[in-house]
Records
---
Amino acid sequence: MHAVALATALVLSGCTSGTPDETATTPAVKLGAALEAFVADASTHGAPAVVFHVRNGDQEELRATGVKDLESNTKAVPTDRMWIIGAGTPMVAVSVMKLVEAGAVRLEDPVSAHLPEFTAIFPAWDRVTVRDLLGSTSGLPDYFPPLIESRSLDELQTRPLTFEERLRIAAGVNLPPGPVSYFAWSATDWEVLGWLLERKHNRGLAEVLAKDVFEPAGMGSTHVATAGQPPEPMLHGYVLEDGNRRDFTRIDAVAGSADSGVISTVEDVSRFVAALTTGRLIREETWKSMVEAEPFPLGGINPSDDVCPGARHVFVYGGGGPYSVQSVSSEDGQQQVTVATVLPPQELNVTDPPPLVPEMEDAILQTAKSMC
């Protein structure tokens, strides 16, 4: 699993734990029993909301617990949207791989062949290829830590950044030039790819992803965020500032970002993974080349043969600041578990992952294994 962007340290708060659940189940079965303990614990520790989607063949359960926001205490519903920070990277990868399928880009191409600005910002990194970016072996510095450390919360919420600005923030970190032989997740990789996509298509990233991914996958509640307050209905996230709770639902610093700029729902995340693994977005041989790539899979995905005997599953992870999203799907798309949690309000911190995140991952894994 890649490092959670904008990771936050757990600080217990006195926020409201929420109102009764809202559940949409088709048919009337309970598939998420293993998630109940996590939902209860998350609520006890002050998580404003948890939403999960579980599918086992034609059986499906969709549930929301908690509230949309801590000001009105309006009940959360399963169709509420949230930032899926990091979980949008496989969507960007799909668009890149479609360029590969069309012959417009080759995986072994140096990035500078398609984006000369990259070499201007990282002059010693001319050996980095498109494959290195997709496989997290570029070695590029992650722009997130210096961004968080150098900006106030006001700036993070109200100052938009361009791809070039994010790369220049990363370029201020002194690291030896890549590529590297080990897995090194960096949000900067995806900003480079997002910029490359815009350059090759001569269109904005939002339009590219809508055509390549959101529309064919049936993701009607998903979009690339623009600057400003995200349109409702949103699950509001919060951070602590000097011990005081602050609404952090608006995050202009990542609006339009290829790594962190997607807003979606748990159902749409499930729809995306199923569409990706069943050939509705890219060719079967392209998908195979991604999950079987060496030394690491391409596209921000994590294949696993350890969930159910004789079956491959795919994990997608995302999260940062007040949000965490995790999804696992069998490769045929018939068994899926996707969970989104609005984390308890905490001080922004890029070093300590919230304790609820591994607990959520364990609950998801137990649920997936129960469907074997």
---
Amino acid sequence: MTFQWTAVAFFLYAEIVVNLILCIPFITAQRWSSVFSWRIWSWLSPYWNKCFIAIIAALIVLLFDAIREVQKYSSPEPMEDTKMNPNSYDHVYMKLFRAQRNLYICGFSLFLWLIMRRIMTLLNQTAVTLESSAGLEAQVDGALKATKQHQEDNRTLKQALLEGEKSMSTTKQQLKLEAEKLAGQLKAADEAVRKSNAELEAMKRQAKGLAQEYDRLLREHHQLQNLQSAEDKKDQ
């Protein structure tokens, strides 16, 4: 195996190991996202796309070279040479086997390189989605707590309103009783005023009668005095 195919084989083994590590189930997407956010990756990020495209280009070139080798040793011309020279039969098939092996190695390397890039992208997207879903869950929890708090406040307000209505109805009943009591007292006071007015009128009439009687008695007294003084004069 030449140097380039040895390098492609080691690259394939490395890709298999990396893809297996990326597919480990107990390593979460958030953990991979924290690994991908290391400072070294941010330093290598400007070169990542160039390296990715360069490796794809190299693998494609090697893939076409392997396809060319397979077609070369699968064509009828080497088979005709083996018929003319039977000793070269094993050599041709060995070359065909190596060309097919190189084709498989290069094809799987290119395939796993694309798969690895896709897995890393999906892990990042999954981590971002989980973070956003966690933020949404926190917002939903906050909204639920606020809703529950509003419901508790509404319940408390309703209870306060019911208690206020009960106290208002009790106060209305008390005020109604007080008003009825005051109305009764006012009625009794009106009756007392009417009785007082009637007694006052009676006393006025009685006083007027007494004044008239006093004037009559006073006139009679004057008359008696006049008669007595006239009799005294006759006696003299």
---
Amino acid sequence: MEGRIARELISVAFKQLEYSYAPYSHYKVGAALLTAENQIYTGCNIENAAYTPSNCAERTAIFKAVSEGITHFKAICIVGGTEGRVTDYAPPCGVCRQVMMEFCNPETFEVILAINQEKYQTFRLKELYPMGFQLSHLQNERR
């Protein structure tokens, strides 16, 4: 990912921390999702007292885009920390990784984990989720 684009996604993801609804864990997460058409969709985590209905920032961004007909993505930036103070990388949970597998090419989709504008790491989805379940698994079962 080009440095300028990565920094833009980092900036947008940090802005999403302001919208995070995390009254239980106090762990705020923001995400910025880059589409194949270079649009940015945003997301924040949204908690629920029953925990299970909570939604991660990454899925919020992906679901917003998909609900508007966008299903091809290049990259996502994820930032997070207690009370919104980012001091370490916030990798996506397993459920978010599986949702990414549904809509993103694991060979090319980039996941940017950032602490700030200068300190970030970029991974391909296949590095974070090397054996993710995908459509081809279902197609193999039908044969």
---
Amino acid sequence: MTLHIAVLPGDGIGPEIMKQALDVTKAVCEKFGHQLEFEEALVGACAIDAVGDPYPPETHELCMQSDAVLFGAIGDPKYDNDPNAKVRPEQGLLRMRKQLGLYGNIRPVVTFPSLIHKSPLRAELVEGADFICIRELTGGMYFGRPQGRSEDGNTAYDTCIYTREEIERILHLAYKFAGQRRKKLTVVDKANVIATSRLWRQIAQEIAPQYPDIETDFLFVDNAAMRIIQWPKSFDVLVTENLFGDILTDEASVITGSLGLLPSASIGLHTSLFEPIHGSYPQAAGKDIANPVAMILSAALMFELGFNLMREGALIREAVNASMEAGIVTEDIAEGGKAYKTSEVGKWIVDYIRK
């Protein structure tokens, strides 16, 4: 099989962790007899600096022509700290999601046995937690119009808009994942206050009978936020709108012990994208200390969800688990032992795959 991949390292630690994921991808392709063809392109702050556009047309064209996109991270403090900046790296990310039709963000939340002690939760609460957050990615407040600020700078406004088509599409995707797992779907909304949430709940109630083998329940977003901390093992698949999903998935990721561990997939109408959930971590850029595991596991998701190559993805997961059991970890999760460099962790995983 030939894999045509667009590689977007992005900003901060993006290029460093992407190199490790690419090395792992190459090793897996060699082992299973696949041909890998990839091309890199600019996105984010580095693209603004180079061409003045956080998501250049050339990058979009490459993504459209590829079978999958591996994406690192975007963001730079010089834009974060300038509220008056007209062009921002995040604008490129939102435009990429919209133009590629990346409507469904899939974030698995899985704990690692060797790292249970790093979780901020008690071991008995988090041990065995295994659920998926599915976030609608191209609607809601992040894309609502009108949007802006008053001329005097004292008032700002955003609008949250959802259509039936957008809600139905993400719900059917969520039911598909629930059907492949423990057959429980939790729809998260704020239907007691927000009109778009009432539409979400109405449509979910209409669709639920189409999946009689799946248990469907509903939680307000504030209740869901509490339950993720109190009873994370009670969840199987959660589905929610864009803003709620952004917040809840970051909350859920922390219970594993490190933001550097969890991958994600953004399912698209055109080309799907695979990325770690963490940001660009500019303080660590160029220091060879960032955790590459989330980026490497994003490559595993690419094999599984992008190409339906399950054995390949499973081997990457096996190698990552083995590296953690062996204590080959970066400084964010090292405890009482040696902290390995980004490149050293990547090389260990590649060597495991090749043996």
